[in-house]
Design goal:
Blueprint lengths: L8 H18 L3 H12 L5 H9 L10 E8 L2 H4 L2 H9 L4 E5 L2 H4 L9 H10 L5 E5 L2 E5 L3 E6 L5 E8 L2 E9 L8 E3 L2 E3 L1 H17 L6 E7 L7 H9 L3 E2 L19 E6 L2 E8 L8 E7 L1
Length: about 290
């Protein structure tokens, strides 16, 4: 792990450059001030998107159907609310990938008779008839779901969405924040940086085993800004393209501005739009992409 894995790194980078700029201004080092100003604005641009614009695959345009996918690291005040699901329906989500559904991780979500289970099912199933879940992850869909893989270190959950003859593999992801405390996984306790490394290695190992022509979406809370090796090098090297805009769009509400830690990558697909929405009861934005099929 490096400083690039720390979600708040670029905030401290910017603050440090502001201090440097003030120092240079005091001593009239104008050329250095210009350089410092240029470096200051780097964190406001998503260089991963620039990389993918340059390397973007050519995908046939003769597509007629659109699948809208939404991704949200949420909490129980949201997903237990019918209003939350109706909002997702209103913005047009066909498939929803959720992270940090902790009652599920604690074994409470699908226990018959519990308030958590009743509220969740009554709220979500009114809009989305298909549900798949594992660890802290839930996927709901208007289309049939097939569970494929549950990660050993609990960083991701894989499902296939089946639309007639078309199958899309979704990897619902949440990498551990290296600033968090030690975490248990599979009955063992891990140092947070060690756990994150194991999670990333398992993800890359899993991706290497996937058929080259399979349609895949990797999305969720990566807990890192867009300058991380996984985002800039590892996933592009395997042919994955990052959805987003060149001008960075924050996905996390914080006192420190500009934190973009939720990302979506895709392969063998055509993404025609990318938007974010901040909904009540969640400090993470909902990412929404339209996929042309």
């Amino acid at each position: 792990m490096s400083v690039w894995d720390v979600p708040q790194f670029w905030n401290f980078w910017s603050l440090g450059l502001v201090a440097l700029a003030l120092y240079l201004l005091k001593y009239h080092k104008k050329w250095l001030l210009i350089l410092g100003g240029f470096l200051f604005f780097i964190p406001f641009f998503d260089l991963t998107v620039l990389v993918h614009i340059i390397r973007r695959e050519v995908v046939p345009q003769n597509r007629k159907k659109t699948l809208s996918v939404c991704v949200n690291n949420t909490d129980d005040r949201a997903y237990r609310s019918l209003k939350y699901w109706k909002t997702l329906e209103k913005i047009g989500c066909d498939v929803v990938l959720l992270q940090e559904v902790w009652p599920l991780a604690k074994g409470l979500l699908f226990v018959k008779g519990t308030a958590t289970n009743t509220e969740f099912l009554s709220a979500s199933k009114e809009v989305y008839p298909y549900i798949a879940s594992a660890a802290e992850f839930v996927v709901v869909s208007r289309y049939p779901l097939v569970e494929v893989y549950k990660a050993r270190y609990e960083a991701f959950f894989v499902v296939d969405v089946v639309l007639g003859d078309t199958k899309i593999r979704f990897i619902n992801l949440h990498l551990w924040n290296p600033l968090f405390a030690a975490q248990s996984s599979g009955g063992r306790s891990y140092n947070p940086t060690k756990l994150r490394t194991l999670q990333q290695e398992e993800l890359l190992g899993y991706l290497l085993k996937q058929p080259k022509d399979l349609r895949i979406v990797i999305a969720g809370d990566f807990n890192t800004q867009p300058f991380n090796r996984l985002l800039l090098w590892d996933l592009p090297r395997l042919g994955y393209i990052k959805a987003g805009t060149l001008l960075l769009q924050p996905t996390f509400s914080s006192i420190l501005p500009g934190i973009t830690i939720d990302h979506l990558f895709y392969k063998n697909l055509l993404v025609t739009s990318y938007n974010i929405y901040f909904l009540p009861h969640s400090d993470h934005a909902v990412m929404k992409v339209d996929i042309s099929l």
